[in-house]
């Protein structure tokens, strides 16, 4: 359950140190907009390991954490670089187990969104009409079916998700540590309310929230920490503060495609790695050559449209 | 006469299927181009819905992601992702859902998850996203995908989104399923009796034989094949302007 102490403004490093532990299930949410990149990098800098990372769209933020070796498991619903192509670190982890093996559980967007909804409501599962006939249903520990007690209709059931900690980025906090976000607000409210602990990074602190159509306000008593991190969503964006750095999303493709380029990027950004050699393939001890272990261009011809 | 290629033709043919008033759920890639092209040409009153939550989005430029600020800023309403999938997509409020595919079989079943085994794949694809529910609940589904033997396969490695089921008659979903598959070769439609995808239209310059060559099963061909009209000058101009991310009003 949420921390009983009122939220207050903390340095990000302190908030991550206190609330994100090795082995935790961690959700960093933000649907294209307001992705908490700065918090993710702090998690990596503090050397967290064995996390189960939950996120509808892993996006660059989890591609980075996966490549850095932070995650043992990924729960997600769409793992592409929006408008660009593959998430190469995610693919390398799943296909070649670099830097180590990554377990995967996957939903549709509807399934994962509803798993958060159930988690936020502290219900054991959510119900939706979907999944029928898909192979996603074979993941019986997270997707099953339930018969409607009123009509007899068979419906899909998804197991609730209750992260140990959810991290989001928002535009504003007030002096009491209440938080306000607007624009595309994705599944952040649900992810925060589903979690035991919640950390929010914000663009700035104001005395009073402005009037905003469609804004989500999270009261301080459901938050564990609020940290002022201007531009903390870069290279995603915060509506009203920044625009999406589409160039970086394009550039990431080349960085992530190549293990050496990725390790260079990590080192330049003071992000610790497991000192895995770029040539080292952890798949069944096979000593693949760098050429074989890097993802070939041929693989990339299978890019489905993004839906 | 402007230059165009088979990919342009595919996007133009997809755009033509949208009508004024249609509520269309749009993803990035070809669907995004097609839907915005329709809105800039013959269907200015089609309603674009993006799964990020933007309802009646009126993007001034082609959005690069489904979460672009321009979508939220120009939308009639912006809703949360759970609301989008429960109240709008799942509830059947979408007329047309555009889907892509890494693999598709003769009954319109779609794989966007893995090539190979799910637990140990040769190629890890992006996954489901909104597709399973769009495939299930949209009143009609239009698949936009380039035709090749790698993509049009006898059997998909993983069923991410259901078309008509393994043998064509197992569909149990509120929507009609993939009513059109628009490719860079032509258009396939489900046979009214068997639901087997059948070549019904060809793009200019493409032959039945070429379409067969690009299909990994023995492609069923309609008795009479319709010729798809080439892109008009207006369609091409707007398509290029969209690609160059130029605004609609010049």
Automatic annotation (TrEMBL), chain A:
<dbReference type="Pfam" id="PF01144">
    <property type="entry name" value="CoA_trans"/>
</dbReference>
<dbReference type="InterPro" id="IPR004165">
    <property type="entry name" value="CoA_trans_fam_I"/>
</dbReference>
<feature type="region of interest" description="Disordered">
    <location>
        <begin position="268"/>
        <end position="307"/>
    </location>
</feature>
<keyword id="KW-0808">Transferase</keyword>
<comment type="similarity">
    <text>Belongs to the 3-oxoacid CoA-transferase subunit B family.</text>
</comment>
<protein>
    <submittedName>
        <fullName>Glutaconate CoA-transferase subunit A</fullName>
    </submittedName>
</protein>
<dbReference type="InterPro" id="IPR037171">
    <property type="entry name" value="NagB/RpiA_transferase-like"/>
</dbReference>
<feature type="compositionally biased region" description="Polar residues">
    <location>
        <begin position="268"/>
        <end position="298"/>
    </location>
</feature>
<dbReference type="GO" id="GO:0008410">
    <property type="term" value="F:CoA-transferase activity"/>
</dbReference>
Automatic annotation (TrEMBL), chain B:
<dbReference type="InterPro" id="IPR004165">
    <property type="entry name" value="CoA_trans_fam_I"/>
</dbReference>
<keyword id="KW-0808">Transferase</keyword>
<dbReference type="GO" id="GO:0008410">
    <property type="term" value="F:CoA-transferase activity"/>
</dbReference>
<protein>
    <submittedName>
        <fullName>Glutaconate CoA-transferase subunit B</fullName>
    </submittedName>
</protein>
<comment type="similarity">
    <text>Belongs to the 3-oxoacid CoA-transferase subunit B family.</text>
</comment>
<dbReference type="Pfam" id="PF01144">
    <property type="entry name" value="CoA_trans"/>
</dbReference>
<dbReference type="InterPro" id="IPR037171">
    <property type="entry name" value="NagB/RpiA_transferase-like"/>
</dbReference>
